[in-house]
Structures are given as C-alpha cells and as structure tokens.
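cron nightly-structures :: item 1 of 1
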Amino acid sequence: MEIKLTQIKVRDLTRGYEDNAENGVRAFGGRLDVRPPYQREFVYKEKQRDAVIDTLTHGFPLNVMYWAVRDDGTYEIIDGQQRTISICQYVNGDFAYMFRYFHNLKEDEQKQILDYELNVYICSGTDSEKLKWFKTINIAGEELTEQELRNAVYAGSWVSDAKRYFSKPGCVATKIASDYLTGSAIRQDYLETAISWISDGNIEVYMSNHQHDANAAPLWQFFQSVVTWVESSFQPNKERKKIMKGVDWGALYKEFKDSVIDTKAVDEEFKKLILDDDVTKKTGIYPFILTRKEKFLSIRAFSDAQKLAAYENQLGICPHCHEHFDLSQMEADHITPWHEGGRTVAENCQMLCRECNRRKSGK
C-alpha cells in the first residue's frame, strides 16, 4: 500500500462540484467521489461549517484529509467529507459566511481562498488495505457508527439503494415511521433498525447475502408492511406515539401479523397500564399486551425497607419451604401477583428463598 502527501488548491478541489441524485456529490473536476456509499450525509452544523471557512480566510492550517485511489484512477474521500462539502458549498454560493457570499468577496479575497492549499494524503492499495486504513484513521476523528462501518464493508448496489429509502434527509422512512424509530436517518440508525427487523438481528449476515443485489426493494417492502401493521392494529394517536419509539416492531410483526388483534380491547388495557404506577417502562406496554411477558414493563421493585420489614416479620423463614435463610439469600416477591392485581406495597411483599422464588416465577 502506498500513501502520499499532496497539496491540492481549493480552486482545483471545487472545480466541477455537483451534488445531485444521479451522480451523487462530485468534485475535483468530477474525479473525486465526495460521498461514497459508506459515508454519512452532510451533518455539519452552521457553526462547524463556518469554522472551516474561517480557517481558509485566515490562512490557518486545516486538518489533513484522506483520499483513496480507485482502480479507474478516480478518487474517493476516506476522511474529510464534511470539510470538503463545506468548502465546495461556500465557493458555489450555497451559503454566506459573515453575511457575505463568495461572489460578494473582493477579487483578492476570492483568490486567497482559491489558492489555499489543502494537505491530502492519497492512499492506493487493495480494498481491504484501504478499509483497514480507513478504520484506523477514523478513530482519530468523529467515529462512524456501527452501521456506517457495515456500509463500508458491504458497499455495493444494495447499500446505495437502501440508503435512498432510509438514510437521506427527509427520506421516505422518515416520513412514514419517524414516530416509531429512534436515532437519526443520516447516522444510519433507521437503516440499521430496518435490517435488524428483517434479519432478526443478524445484520452482517443479511448485508453480506444481499450486497450485490440490484436494489433493496424487499427490505423497503417489509419495512412498509411493519409500519402499516402497527398503525392499523393500534391506531395510535399523537400522545401514544411518544411511547412507541424504539419498540422492536419487526419482531412483533413477524410473530403476530397473522393474529386478529382486538383494537378495542388493546385500547382499554393500554388506558389501565399507562396509569399504573407499578409499570415503570411505559414503552413496553404494547409488547406486553401482545406477548403477556411482564419483563417488558419493568414492574416496580420493592424498596430495601419493604424487603427488610417483610424479612423481619417472617423471622427469616421462607413461607414456601419453611427453611431459615439470611436476608442476602432471599428475594422479594408479590404475594398476589401483579398481573392478578397485586400492588408493589409493603402488605403485598414476602421474602422467598431464591429456589422457591424461581420455582414460583416459572409457573
């Protein structure tokens, strides 16, 4: 692998700059792919973007950038996408810095920026060598998310098409499902969630199997089916959507999509659970209603004081096996189970030995 430090002027970098759906983001006379499939969308905020332009106007050194040479002699950005787009957008007249657009600058001011020399390391080698190098240098900057790294490893036609649905600002996944997803589309969180849903969490395996597919239509169709099922089954309003974010809807869809769900009954149970103080994890209400597994609700635990009081009242005797145990060997239990109306109050607390508690919980 060969790595060479090169100085590239801003005027050369910005020549032929374009950003469109057909060709993506190109610069350097069309020879530089500014946003390869594994790279994130433009995420710089105004303050960060302005800092780049401020650096150029003052002639201060800008952090080094990294490019990789492709087999056809063109280049792709390994590190420096955000800085490159900031520079290109400013010279292109897309935004103003200090209330002045580039075309408003005096000729000598424009020349100073255009003649600014950027330090770029250019790397040539095999795909695996470049990827390893990329992961190494990425540690020093803003680290990529796990999904962004997966996009790098499994780059191809499938990733490019999947990003169209799940990774662009204002993408269709955002429009139909932002109420049910956590994270950010441009940081690949939506794409990661969609793949996790369809693959039962085996994201790398799924991406490897589909890396060279012509498109990601099956993933998008599955994702739409999940969202349609959620909305038709639960008919959520604005307030209820607040506790529906981040639920593993894909797994629930696979298990219950063929079941007839009584929307009215679900609605009534939801109203009770949302007001139940013992339910500490409201986001687990819908998964619980479907599966009946209390683990989704994180039922409120007895306090240490309640446990000690119950232990003292029992004289350290387990009421099930009638053996004596130290407090540390016992666990708090609802005398009347929560699902039968038992509350997490002192009067409903008993201390069981671990074995008896496990036996009771397993019934």
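cron nightly-structures :: done
The chain has a mean pLDDT of 89.
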